[in-house]
Amino acid sequence: PPRRGLGESVDTLLRAAPPFIIYSSCSAESLGKDLLSLKGEYRAVKAQLFDMFPHAVHFETLALLARTSVRPI
Length: 73
What we know:
The protein is α+β, with helices and mostly antiparallel strands. It is built from two helices and three strands; from the N terminus they run αβαββ. A three-stranded antiparallel β-sheet has the order 1-3-2, covered by helices on one side. The protein starts with 8 loop residues before the first helix and ends in a 6-residue tail after the last strand. The model has no long low-confidence stretch (mean pLDDT about 85).
């Protein structure tokens, strides 16, 4: 998602209900906000920080989210 996070597109994502989401973020604040909005539907399985700009305070985060329950089709 853009730096501001998922925003209203979280509803579309929840309706699609993919079994996994790979979330790439350049903003820890929006990542945290989006994880809260997905709480109950998805859980963070793994996360990795990437220091793409070693002489700056900026970092990237890649998170693997898994759906917590299987919905009937």
